[in-house]
UniProtKB/TrEMBL annotation:
The keyword Lipid biosynthesis does not apply. The keyword rRNA-binding applies. Part of the 50S ribosomal subunit. Keywords: Ribonucleoprotein, Ribosomal protein, RNA-binding, rRNA-binding. The gene is rplD. This is Large ribosomal subunit protein uL4. Forms part of the polypeptide exit tunnel. One of the primary rRNA binding proteins, this protein initially binds near the 5'-end of the 23S rRNA. It is important during the early stages of 50S assembly. It makes multiple contacts with different domains of the 23S rRNA in the assembled 50S subunit and ribosome. GO terms for biological process: translation. Pfam families: Ribosomal_L4 (PF00573). It comes from Frigoriflavimonas asaccharolytica. Belongs to the universal ribosomal protein uL4 family.
Amino acid sequence: MELVVLNTQGKETGRKVAFDESVFGIEPKQHAVYLEVKQYLAAQRQGTHKSKERSEITGSTKKLRKQKGSGGARYGDIKNPLFKGGGRVFGPRPRDYRFKLNKSLKRLAKKSVLSQKMKDNSIMVLEDVSMDAPRTKDFITILDALALNGKKSLFILPEANKNLYLSSRNLGKTKVANYNEISSYDLVHAGEIVFFEGAVEKFQENLKK
């Protein structure tokens, strides 16, 4: 399959870029996508939650009343979880939520998302852009030309481009990232995916390893 390369004015340049069927034309595996998105979100959690349990509460350990003869339930000390101010039963403790996934499954997840995006005509190719200095206004002009202003979009670079990245950083719905920094979450979260012309081949080779 092929897509036409667009210029920064949104016009066709006459050049085309080939997309590998083994990356952009497979049958999507939704469970693989679910697992990688779950892994990404789990890794974002700080895991610093903590509540005090019975042994960590400051208070007397004296038994509040004798064991028998009161006609009521047995009481322990004031740190009993049943009392106000007592320790919490099985409260949250600091933990690491990250978990491991095989590289082959993560590649399958990316291929699945890209194949679905290709079916939905949500992928386009833009000619390589260079900026002498960061300028958000110039980047917004490109978004307007591609009819992406105000839409969630992901721009995939063939190599690090600091000026282009800084020009887009203040735009909440637009993300610019290098081809080897993309996760399935980024692909799913983006409504439209824009490959810079030089990034297509590198991205495909990265998924074939």
